[in-house]
Amino acid sequence: FSNTYRMIEQDDFDIHTRLHTIVRGEDEAAMVESVGLALVKLPDVLNRLKPDIMIVHGDRFDALALATSAALMNIRILHIEGGEVSGTIDDSIRHAITKLAHYHVCCTRSAEQHLIAMCEDHDRILLAGCPSYDKLLSAKNKDYMSVIRMWLGEDVKTRDYIVALQHPVTTDIKHSLKMFELTLDALISFNKRTLILFPNVDAGSKEMVRVMRKKGIEHHPNFRAVKHVPFDQFIQLVAHAGCMIGNSSCGVREVGAFGTPVINLGTRQTGRETGENVLHVRDADTQDKILHALQLQFGKQYPCSKIYGDGNAVPRILKFLKSINLKEPLQKKFCFPPVKDNISQDIDHILETQSALAVDLGGTNLRVAIVSMKGEIVKKYTQLNPKTYEDRLELILKMCVEAASEAVNVNCRILGVGISTGGRVNPREGIVLHSTKLIQEWSSVDLRTPISDALHLPVWVDNDGNCAALAERKFGHGKGIENFVTLITGTGIGGGIIHQHELIHGSSFCAAELGHIVVSLDGPECLCGSQGCIEAYASGIALQREAKKLHDEDLLLVEGMSMKKEEVVSAAHLIQAAKLGNSKADSILRTAGTALGLGVVNILHTMNPSLVILSGVLASHYVNAVKDVINQQALSSVKTVDVVVSNLADPALLGAASLVLDYTTRRIY
């Protein structure tokens, strides 16, 4: 409401010139008159200031007047937050400013691609992230209770109030008024303390204020109606709210940094990239739909999203500004199609690789790696996996923080954290439900919340077998294959199933426990308590068990083999003995390969995949045996299946990275 200058003064900036340009009226004509008034007044100001560069932010109609004046007066323009997509006249204004601007600072990879598609010069685009995130990510843990009480009352608790912020949609004022009225009805029915901000000065705002007064919002005991909240205090209010509702860009952009649930109403933000925390209500005929959305969202806590920034935008922008050569020609260059194949920047101040932090929780080791979008392991850290829950979680956080810090030095932008772990996992909640016996104190463990809170990054968790299948789908033999199965042959036997390009989890997250397919009713006992499972025959533990039996009977070692006295008998010794002609060792391996092959035949008859990928340290020893069993036992219609050995060096880490790199967070309601 024309008072933003007060915030600028509070930040100790000297204001050279003040222009009154807002024409009252809050309708379409008033917006046009405001732009015209600014265009009349700005030339004199710019002639006096003679700026080298004009920084223009966002997509408001007053910013269009600034950009137009600067362009016509041959002043270089740096536009911040261009390339984004929303659902109002702001889209047209934003893209118009883009065409006038000489340099561009954008917040997301999609926005960068939009700018390139709009024929802007690649070398003049900086993907920096949203500058407000620099402040957001450092502000959440300040004294927030005093702020909440000041605006909402002494008796309000965190996560037990709503922040509402709804503006008119200038291209459809009538519909936006209807949505606002339904929103207020739903909030009244929901009966929670609500801080509601007045709409902005766009066309239609007067009518929205009338709706508020008609419903008595300013005097309702559950509502606090205000025109403005200082930015620092607004951060604290939305960070600790039970929900934010409305159609402000703040809801789909900044609030994601805190994981606060958001209900985005109508079409004003259509096209914006959103985090997992945003639930969209595109249209509503009654208050019931909005009320149901409130019931679904209120009080939840989502992973923190960094779609719009990682807290380092300002240093990047400063570096970009310093790199601008004021002697180069002012005339804009447009890069008309075809665009470059590689849309990454070549200028050293913005060359960053989109990457994931991948965590692999094994029975012995805990590993964390920085993995690029192309599947390159940029840096890897390995520690022994602690035996207790507290020590393990502490080490995971320590290693992730160290890796995230190092990512800046190796020019990688971390998009999120993916975790691969043994056991049964609920990937929707990020919880390990039941662990394998190899990892102690690892049942009913919420991994997502503490790691997301510590790193301000979204976190995904899944079973190690599922992660191996995802790794194959993105980086390995499964790339482009609609239906395939991955089998991990290691300490245990696990796997993952890709059906119609999607990973299958099952109704209780127990799908693809392929190691526990029973191939013999009276076979050896498995760690799961059953008998005759594939894992009881073909896992590393099973082979080690059989090797120990042979060794105890002095039947393991043959000519060419030796063992130190303190050396532990392992599956590797059994394999070595078989290669050197030990018939008993060879028989055990053939039995194990047959058991695995029978399990694969069962999978073929159940899922009918076109590809079976054997992964893990034992895969190469089993592949021929599996093919033989398929030829002997499988139905003719599935005998043509391809059986291959994985060529991925580290499927667990690559699969964990795939959780992050392939994830789509937008939800529609």
UniProtKB/TrEMBL annotation:
EC number assigned by the record: 2.7.1.60, 3.2.1.183
UniProt pathway annotation: Amino-sugar metabolism; N-acetylneuraminate biosynthesis
Active site annotation, chain numbering: 464
Catalyzed reactions per annotation: an N-acyl-D-mannosamine + ATP = an N-acyl-D-mannosamine 6-phosphate + ADP + H(+); UDP-N-acetyl-alpha-D-glucosamine + H2O = aldehydo-N-acetyl-D-mannosamine + UDP + H(+)
Binding site for an N-acyl-D-mannosamine: 424, 436, 464, 513, 516, 535
UniProt record, GO biological process: UDP-N-acetylglucosamine metabolic process
Binding positions for Zn(2+) per the UniProt entry: 516, 526, 528, 533
GO CC annotation terms, alphabetical: cytosol
Keywords, comma-separated and alphabetical: Allosteric enzyme, ATP-binding, Cytoplasm, Hydrolase, Kinase, Metal-binding, Multifunctional enzyme, Nucleotide-binding, Phosphoprotein, Transferase, Zinc
CDD domains membership: ASKHA_NBD_ROK_GNE, GTB_UDP-GlcNAc_2-Epimerase
Localization of this protein: Cytoplasm, Cytosol
Keyword ATP-binding: yes
UDP-N-acetylglucosamine 2-epimerase domain location: 4-322
Known partners and oligomeric status: Homodimer. Homotetramer. Homohexamer. The hexameric form exhibits both enzyme activities, whereas the dimeric form only catalyzes the phosphorylation of N-acyl-D-mannosamine.
Family: In the N-terminal section; belongs to the UDP-N-acetylglucosamine 2-epimerase family. In the C-terminal section; belongs to the ROK (NagC/XylR) family.
Name of the protein in question: Bifunctional UDP-N-acetylglucosamine 2-epimerase/N-acetylmannosamine kinase
Organism annotation: Nestor notabilis (Kea)
